[in-house]
UniProtKB/TrEMBL annotation:
GO terms for biological process: proteolysis. GO terms for molecular function: metallocarboxypeptidase activity; zinc ion binding. Residues 30-307 form the Peptidase M14 domain. InterPro entries: Peptidase_M14. This is M14 family metallocarboxypeptidase. SUPFAM superfamilies: Zn-dependent exopeptidases. Signal peptide: none annotated.
Length: 307
């Protein structure tokens, strides 16, 4: 459905130039602090993980160091599982769900897997509650060689340097009301396109890989999460955010074609979680718990497969 909403920055039908990007960047505000809400939690996990700095964002290197949590008992004979959060910095439970998993549940799986957890890939986006980075680039459409996104480039470089095959990747995200009220209209304006309104699904869903869908794996994630929060229903066209529902709570995307984070490796198993924090049925703790349940559901499935 076409929407008459006109984004306040730019001229309809014209792509943004550096002028509009600068205007957009000036309109953002710091609303919370990475250094107060995320970095201390990472530091507190140093007794359970090796805390490894893999870079820093040039926007303010001292303010935005980038860290992963890496299994202390690393063994290249074990499968390696990557967990990422905060690729879109505004998606809060992706960040804090990853940290909560690391703190409360990861110990149950470290004998079976090498774990690499990147809890906040986009700290500038975290602070400004934004989908993009300061250059109006979406990190989650930028996972390709010579990426224009520092956020994507830094984590890709680190993962490649591990020099191990990534067996599975769980990428923690949210779908929010602001996707339709702010971020998709901004995207259309940036690219000089018309904005067509879509609906926001009420509930949790996952995005699998069109090329390697692994339906049993996705179903295991859904079964685990539904113990914590509700699963998004399909709309009247049997879609979720415009894509066909392939099984309850699951859609598929061509991850590499879209340059998505969950497609940055050639892993056999991948899933992108989507929590809906704006539902009146949930609170922040439930959203974090849903992300934890998604990771544990995925790992329990993989553990059973590898017996």
């Amino acid at each position: 459905m076409k929407n008459n909403h006109q984004y306040p920055i730019g001229t309809p039908g014209q792509k943004w130039t550096d002028v509009e990007v600068a205007e957009w960047r000036a309109s953002t505000q710091v609303k919370r602090l990475y250094g107060e809400e995320v970095l201390p939690k990472i530091s507190e996990l140093s007794d359970k993980f090796d805390v490894v700095q893999y870079g820093a964002l040039s926007y303010d290197a001292a303010r935005f160091p980038l860290y992963v949590l890496k299994s202390k008992n690393w063994n290249e004979q074990k499968p390696t599982v990557l967990v990422t959060g905060g690729v879109h910095g505004y998606e809060t439970s992706g960040v804090h769900g990853a940290l909560k998993f690391a703190d409360t549940q990861a110990s149950h799986y470290q004998n079976d897997f090498n774990l690499v957890i990147a809890p906040c890939i986009s700290p500038w986006g975290y602070e400004t509650i934004n989908r993009w980075n300061p250059n109006a680039i979406d990190p989650n459409r930028s996972f390709y060689a010579d990426s224009p996104s520092e956020e994507a480039a830094n984590i890709m470089k680190f993962v490649a340097a591990l020099n191990v095959e990534i067996y599975a990747h769980i990428d923690l995200h949210e779908t929010t009301d602001t996707d339709e009220s702010e971020f998709r209209p901004a995207l259309a304006a940036r690219d000089g396109l018309e904005y067509f309104e879509d609906s926001v699904p009420d509930g949790f869903y996952t995005v699998g890989n069109t090329e390697k869908p692994q339906p049993d794996f996705q179903a295991a994630v859904i079964r685990s999460v539904e113990k914590v929060t509700h699963i998004a229903p399909a709309d009247e066209n049997n879609n979720i955010i415009g894509s066909p529902v392939v099984q309850r709570g699951v859609i598929n995307y061509p991850l590499k074609k879209l340059s998505l984070c969950a497609g940055m490796t050639d892993c056999l198993y991948s899933t992108t979680t989507e929590v809906y924090p704006d539902s009146p049925k949930v609170d922040a703790q439930e959203c974090n718990d849903a992300q934890v349940a998604a990771v544990t559901g995925a790992l329990a499935f993989l553990k059973a497969v590898n017996r």
